[in-house]
Design goal:
The structure holds 2 protein chains of 2 kinds.
Chain A (H helix, E strand, L loop, with lengths): L1 E5 L2 E3 L24 E3 L1 H16 L7 E8 L4 H9 L3 E6 L10 H14 L4 E5 L10 H9 L3 E10 L5 E8 L2 E8 L2 E5 L13 H6 L6 E3 L8 H6 L3 E8 L7 E2 L5 H18 L1
Parallel strand pairs in A: 1-4, 1-6, 4-5, 5-11, 6-10, 7-10
Antiparallel strand pairs in A: 2-3, 7-8, 8-9
Chain B lengths: L1 E7 L5 H15 L5 E7 L18 E7 L11 H10 L4 E4 L3 H14 L2 E6 L1 E4 L4 E7 L4 E7 L4 E5 L16 E4 L7 H10 E8 L13 E5 L6 H14 L2 E4 L1 H5 L20 E5 L5 H7 L4 E6 L12 E4 L2 H12 L2
Parallel strand pairs in B: 1-2, 1-4, 2-3, 3-10, 4-9, 5-9, 12-13, 12-14, 14-15, 15-16
Antiparallel strand pairs in B: 6-7, 7-8
Helix pairs in contact in B: 2-3, 5-8
Classes of the chains: A alpha/beta, B alpha/beta.
Chain lengths: 273, 329
């Protein structure tokens, strides 16, 4: 069973000072000096794939790959995936190409990869804080004509090779499903897989000299002009969100004194409305 | 411009969700020639529309579609496509839960439109649809133009002013009479799903936070599952709904339905007390629409302090019981 995990590298937003949150003439923010992390939901997706492999009677039956669309600079994360047993790959993203609000382009790239290297399951995290699109996995399912299961929290093997069992969280409650592959699984808040496990020293040493495979979109039969032209959204402006509030500080000698002041001055009237 | 509002008619908060969708439409400036409701699930025979904001056009028709099967969007998309083919429209609004975002995205793709999720507000006219949404972890606001109609938008929580709601006439309610157009498609759809079982939440647990007016939210500073349970009891005694940050939910200290934030519930509370949470951007998305925010934290420089109307520098384990002693002696 071939399983592809798609992941995105996200800048650590907390590393930016207030002054750095200024869009340039291309409506971009300079994150060049900010540390990048694997998007937390993509981490959960990767961890669920590894747990599926852990539980397999024959671990070699589950073949794991990881794919990201990014500019150069994420090698440490690709090495992390490789150390954990994924075939880690990157589709090169030129710096002048803006895909922040173009989830369809990302989906098309993943679909093109899937045609080249067929998979039984493609896992993605449900959202990332950068574009806040929440659409890549959904559009990928549309492009491939595959079923799409969202808010996935657990995956386990079924008795048959072409089936899997999964758990998803819905507004009505927890749902247990048994489905046929292939399928796109969009991973949500998964308490059983809150983060991607760390590789051991031995695992990291084993891949130290390996280089990750890097694809160009041309190798996947695509071109950047076409990918950008199909986007259904155009960014017009990007402005700093001012969320600061009054920040009145309640002073007092004790918790009881502060609680009294909070209730009398701020809560009592509001609660009575 | 013909507009359709699409919701789960069997959701416990269906009427309030409808008010928020209508409020969004009213604020968008869209010149709607007509407005319809397409609802999943059956309505009671004595159904009446709740008070709604003044819309450009009154709601002219309510179409009831089959209930969402197992909550799986794949099964209702072909029906929505048929509804659109029979009654094309330029603007389709979806409630901003996960199902709504999925429906907006996948339906727009199928009918050749443009979609956007997590939309805070929109400015729509005959020539353009511009939407605003939060990006970069709530640090920035983006304005995006959608390229071509039909526009499928799923919206974020709206803070509806009750003074802007008015009684309105309930139009004709129609039951759908559509059948899947392509029987081969119907067979293909049913082939991949082998079985589905849902462990339903009790009514009390269904969307407990969603329309709460008084919320007590705790973050990782709560420290343990036991203390989380204690704070939950305190919230109940205070008369507040209980919410948690992502670390608390992911530690398994509380059920996921209590998660506040970018990937959880976004409350529109009158009062939100936040205790022991640093105030990450993702969590802040969950509370930012609250009218009044109180932060309790031992660190006066925690990011949450900038998002609070009132800040109390203290230990939540001392402050919350002290507050309870005053509010519920």
């Amino acid at each position: 069973m071939n399983i592809l995990v798609c992941f995105k590298l996200i800048p650590d937003f907390l590393m930016l000072s207030e002054q750095a949150w200024q869009a340039d003439q291309n409506l971009a923010i300079d994150f060049s000096f900010a540390k990048k992390n694997i998007n937390c939901f993509d981490e959960s997706a990767a961890e669920l794939a590894l747990q599926l492999q852990d539980a397999a009677a024959d671990k070699k039956y589950i073949v794991l790959s990881a794919l990201t669309v990014s500019a150069p600079g994420g090698e440490v994360h690709l090495k992390q995936f490789a150390a954990l047993g994924f075939a880690a790959q990157r589709v090169d993203l030129p710096v002048e190409i803006d895909l922040r609000f173009n989830p369809l382009a990302i989906a098309q790239i993943i679909a093109a990869y899937q045609r080249m290297a067929p998979q039984s399951l493609i896992l993605l995290g449900m959202q990332n804080g950068e574009g806040n699109n929440m659409q890549t996995g959904l559009l990928l399912a549309e492009l491939l004509g595959w079923p799409c299961l969202t808010q996935v929290t657990r995956i386990s093997q079924s008795e048959s090779d072409q089936q899997i069992n999964l758990t998803r969280q819905t507004g009505q409650g927890e749902q247990q499903l048994s489905i046929k592959t292939p399928a796109v699984l969009v991973v949500g808040n998964a308490p059983d897989a809150p983060s991607l496990r760390a590789a051991t020293m031995m695992q990291r040493l084993a891949v130290q000299q390996q280089n990750s495979r890097v694809y160009s979109v041309a190798e996947l039969g695509l071109d950047w002009q076409g990918l950008q032209a199909k986007s259904d959204q155009l960014l017009l402006s990007l402005v700093r969100q001012n969320t600061r509030r009054a920040q009145r500080v309640i002073e007092g000698k004790s918790a009881a004194e502060k609680a009294q002041q909070l209730y009398q001055d701020y809560l009592k009237e509001r609660l009575s409305q | 411009m013909k507009t359709v509002l699409i919701l789960d008619g069997e959701s416990p908060s269906f009427l309030k969700n409808l008010q928020e969708l209508a409020y969004f439409l009213a604020q968008s400036g869209a010149a709607c020639a007509s407005v319809e409701l397409w609802l999943f699930g059956a309505l009671p025979t004595d159904f009446g529309l709740p008070p709604l904001p003044l819309l450009p056009s009154r709601i002219q028709r309510i179409l009831c579609l089959p209930a969402l099967k197992s909550g799986l969007v794949d099964f209702c998309l072909p029906l929505l496509e048929q509804c659109y083919e029979q009654a094309p429209c330029q603007l389709l609004l979806f409630y901003g839960d996960h199902a709504g975002a999925e429906l907006a995205t996948r339906l727009a793709y199928r009918i050749g439109g443009a979609s956007c999720t997590n939309v805070d507000s929109a400015a729509i006219d005959a020539d353009a649809c511009h939407v605003k949404k939060q990006v970069y972890g709530n640090h920035m606001q983006a304005t995006l133009a959608l390229r071509q109609p039909p526009y499928c938008l799923s919206i974020t929580r709206q803070s509806v002013d009750a003074r802007q709601l008015f009684a309105c006439e309930t139009p004709e309610v129609l039951q759908h009479s559509l059948r899947p157009k392509n029987s081969a498609t119907a067979v293909a759809l049913s082939n991949w799903l082998i079985s589905a079982q849902t462990q339903p939440l009790s009514v009390e647990l269904l969307n407990p936070l969603h329309h709460a007016k008084f919320v007590l939210a705790v973050g990782q500073g709560v420290g343990s599952a036991e203390n989380t349970a204690r704070c939950r009891q305190l919230a109940k005694a205070l008369g507040a709904e209980f919410g948690v940050s992502r670390p608390v939910a992911m530690n398994g200290w509380c059920e996921m339905s209590r998660l506040l934030g970018m990937s959880g519930v976004q409350v529109v509370a009158d009062i939100c007390i936040v205790a022991g949470a640093s105030g990450s951007a993702a969590f802040s998305t969950g509370i930012a629409r609250s009218r009044f925010i109180v932060a309790i934290n031992t660190n006066p420089d925690a990011p949450i302090s900038q998002q609070a109307d009132v800040l109390i520098v203290d230990d939540l384990n001392e402050f919350l019981p002290a507050l309870l002693a005053i509010m519920a002696p």
